Amino acid sequence: MLQDQTFLRAPGPTPVPDRVKHAMNEPMIGHRSPSFAQLFADTSERLKPIFGTTQPVYTLTASGTAALEAAVTNTVPKGEKVIVVVAGAFGDRFANICEHNGYPTHRLEVEWGRSVSPEDLKNTLQEHPDAKAVLLTYNETSTGVMHPIGELSEKVHQYSEALVLVDGVSCIGGVPGNMDHWNLDVLVTGSQKAMMLPPGLSFVSLSKRAEAKLTDGNPSFYLNLKAYQKQLENSMTPYTPAVSLIQGVKEVSEMMKEETLDHVFERHHLMKDMTRAGIKALGLPLLTSEEDASPTVTSVKETAEFKPDELRSLLSKQFGLTLAGGQKELKGKIFRIGHMGYCSPVDILTTLSMIEMGLKQLGVEIELGKGVKAAQEVYVQNV
Amino acid sequence: MLQDQTFLRAPGPTPVPDRVKHAMNEPMIGHRSPSFAQLFADTSERLKPIFGTTQPVYTLTASGTAALEAAVTNTVPKGEKVIVVVAGAFGDRFANICEHNGYPTHRLEVEWGRSVSPEDLKNTLQEHPDAKAVLLTYNETSTGVMHPIGELSEKVHQYSEALVLVDGVSCIGGVPGNMDHWNLDVLVTGSQKAMMLPPGLSFVSLSKRAEAKLTDGNPSFYLNLKAYQKQLENSMTPYTPAVSLIQGVKEVSEMMKEETLDHVFERHHLMKDMTRAGIKALGLPLLTSEEDASPTVTSVKETAEFKPDELRSLLSKQFGLTLAGGQKELKGKIFRIGHMGYCSPVDILTTLSMIEMGLKQLGVEIELGKGVKAAQEVYVQNV
């Protein structure tokens, strides 16, 4: 419609606020300068409440995948068994990382679109008492399922000595990190999802117990967290960091502080509720149950009346709206709406209205405005 | 003087042109979208002439150190011997990467401030006929020495079957890559030096011979170049890339194309000549010989009259000028002037004039303006 207007509603990367762009446009500074040390000391401190920890949070110049690889290779000795909950493409990636690095890997497979039950995890722990770590996905981006990490972590600690490693890439910044409260041993996230930054940074924090596992001899030089730990003591990074993105971290954390973290988390819950109410009002099937639903991404299933990829393609061409499709076994079968980071209730209404118009054009029998109205009702009931 | 004026003349990170900032401020796009594929196909193609190759150039979301680790771990089987030329802190880092990854590593140590002689390399090759790779630093950032990579590569190919792996981090984009012409097997660079971008990306290209060594089983999951190779065929990256920086790659390559690569290289040579002429005219000792001198960074030695770190500190406070100090064994003994990327002959005059005023204030007996004048003379003789 308007040539260069775009609406990025994929579950990452997400839109970058103008304030953050301005911050990233600040003059470049040397990464060994006192100005950088001051900035980095500050951002490293600001990440702690977002992670829900008093432990240091390390900043890696790399995507989330690298930080996930660092999480396991730094804390689990080579050759030891790990359990990975696989309930979607990112659980699968976490397992691939382990297998690639030679860990005997037990995959606890869960139907895509459901969360793992703490009871199933308990049984798996009992079948594999030699597992040294349990790898969980906080929010499975590929399905829009949020796992009950607190309960799962409790089970692990109750039935084993295994470390709890959590992939929080597609939710941290939008939901509580709760790392200390839930006794998570490693929590990882990336910059480009609920953290409102461009991709390029990832963040990882270790419990004292996980920290004690660090050695100089980790498989990878670049991902050896011992080096990051040593350098963070001088408010530095071991290798040249993505300075402009770190200038952005300061600004996003300031924005979250101004909004208050509690409100950030409530906003994400509200956007989830609005999205789900809108989709349900249109008569479209949601992939996940109310209980499993993610505050950052919602998956909608195909029906006999429309193909998700056709809808996505039409909305992209006509409005510049980006929705995500399904991955791997869900390819072509769902579309996903990202509602995290720099996204507001009004953005949800806009998104739903475009989806309605797209469906209508594809001949789906829906009533225009009905999804938007249902979402509005959720909004007014909740403010 | 002017509160927020800064002059970043460190050998990386370097200033980012406004045009590039604007490009990086473009709306975020999904990394699995056709728009990204189009952008990435374009930037990957644009990097080839900068590398001097017709081979693919892979883009990693990580610092140069990660790409150097990828260079060796992807092309040299675990346990095989490597020769590393160590003539400064970055040769030392390249060797550390090898040692960390368990390669038997022969360090060919060269006095810091000098280039390695092709004859010495030949002798080392003959002493270590079992070496599977020779690791070279094109431009040693810590000393300001440029090694004769073409000649060195020729020696390696003449006397052995070893691969030639080259760290071009602090010069590619400012000097010819010449990868194909010199038969380099791996060439690596980073975004934050002569490439005029913020840090956060690194680039690596492999000869056909090196490419044939790629396997799925590389030690690191994140740095497995096979995955990058497969995805580049779809104009994608295997893991979420730093999209905004890649938007910047397009712009910097466009700027280089407009200026022409030949002129970019000439400008760097001219800036080197101006800097050296200015420093010599002030009677200060240069660390490197004319023959070894780097087009991207110049090191100046201490004298009885001044301490480099005092000069740097004064210039930083008074003018916002960032110069680099010495590293490791040169700590406190030199200062380094970066003249690469978004840096012009006029910037060299400004830098020299500030250095003159700083030296004067420290009581060094110099004639104000003499260095600037010598540099101006070089300029007018060369245009």
Automatic annotation (TrEMBL), chains A, B:
> Matching Gene3D superfamilies, A to Z?
Aspartate Aminotransferase, domain 1, Type I PLP-dependent aspartate aminotransferase-like (Major domain)
Q: Give the cofactors, semicolon-separated.
A: pyridoxal 5'-phosphate
Q: Where is this region: Disordered?
A: 1-21
Q: Does the keyword Transferase apply?
A: yes
- Looking at the record, the residues that make up the Aminotransferase class V domain are 23-328
- Keyword field: Aminotransferase, Pyridoxal phosphate, Transferase
One Pfam family, please name it: Aminotran_5
The UniProt entry, under InterPro entries, shows: Aminotrans_V_dom (IPR000192), Aminotrans_V_PyrdxlP_BS (IPR020578), PyrdxlP-dep_Trfase (IPR015424), PyrdxlP-dep_Trfase_major (IPR015421), PyrdxlP-dep_Trfase_small (IPR015422), SP_NH2Trfase/AEP_transaminase (IPR024169)
Q: Which GO terms describe its molecular function?
A: transaminase activity
What the record says about family reads:
Belongs to the class-V pyridoxal-phosphate-dependent aminotransferase family.
| Name used for this protein in its record | Alanine--glyoxylate aminotransferase family protein
Q: Whose protein is this, by species?
A: Pontibacillus chungwhensis
